[in-house]
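We modelled the chain as a single entity of 433 amino acids. Its sequence is:
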Amino acid sequence: MTTETKAKGFYGWWLLFFLWVVYTIPIGFAFYSPAVLYPFMIEDVGWSRGEIMMGFTATMLLFGLSGPLTAWMLGRFGARITLAIGGVIVAVATFLMGLMGHVYSVYLALSCLSGLGISCASMIPVQMVVVSWFSVRRALALGLVMGGGAIGGFLAPQIISEAVQATGGNWRIGWFIIAAASIIGMVVATLAVRNQPSDMGQHPDGVAPHEAKATAGANRTAKIYRTSINWTVRDALRTPALWLLIGAVVGSFFLWHVVVSQGPLHLQDRGFDPAMAAFFYSLAVGLSVVGRFTIAALGDIIEPRFLFAFGAFCILAGGILFWFVTPEAMWIAYLYPLLAGFGFGAAYICVPTITGNYWGPKAFATVSGLISPVTMSAQALAAPLAGFLYDIQGTYFTVMVISWIAAAIGFGAIFLCTPPKPKEGGSGGKSLF
């Protein structure tokens, strides 16, 4: 470590805490919490499950489709400003959602705006900052920060559910709470986030470049692949590994999003009261923190694609149990969120870890921004497909079978996702493209 860094202290560890807060709010409150509001909204405004789930789909679609825009903003303004702008957008969208009447088109428009804000305020910017600040301990750092999404995903819906029930089922108060939380996240991002260690005269991991090389040499026995070249996006798109990673994410996370988006409604159909349904829904999201912290501990020791595969298997097992949940079999009610939540948390952290390890930090934001529209758009189909099939058939069985098949394909794809090999003469230029 350099003398200057020793004197000042490595800011990266403090930054992880601030990023944890910044990431927790849009994911825990704005992304996961609306699901506990949907039953109250359906009862109040009279929309069907398929119609209400179109809002969730609109949010997810804009979350994914705005990935290239988020990547452009990161290059133009940096992560700190992008995160702040995203927080403001989410706050405005959710505040207006609380004032919304019964106009369905307004609901869809605000859901789209919320998805755009969440994209700018969470995943890609936060991951980019972590990848820039950490190399040797990348999986550890990503797991610690993004564990905030799981903790927020457990606590935030509980807070929202309690507030709504305490006000006699007033779902609007839930949207106002989300808006207030988003303002807090914006303030923290503005005051505490620093885009790169060089902004503070520091180095990744708090280690000078020559010492980093020595550390890398000493740790070769770990056998974790980390690219040593600067990949271009064009070359990355030509590698089978990128498309296999996309396939693994789409297949495994499709099942997860069916489980998480339909959880409160499915559990109430099976005889659970709204409070218990909200609890098990939150438990599934909250338990993903165990998977995320597992990757934090093991992701720099064991090849992340194998950890992803284990997570994908757990999602599949939990998704199967989800179908059989009843109040008479409470062990299933507790086991399905443990398996599905753990599996999602593990796989979720592996995605940016693999992306950073395979294609490097310089191309990370652009590659992630191009991956996001594909993966998120596919995942966004889960909620409306489940909702509309339920409206037609009165059961989730068909969509569950589709989801199980998709998850099995994703499980196989990640095993084939071996480290990419650059073509001769490629990836040597300065341009990201």
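As a brief sanity check on the tokenised model: The mean pLDDT is 87. The chain has one domain: 3-415.
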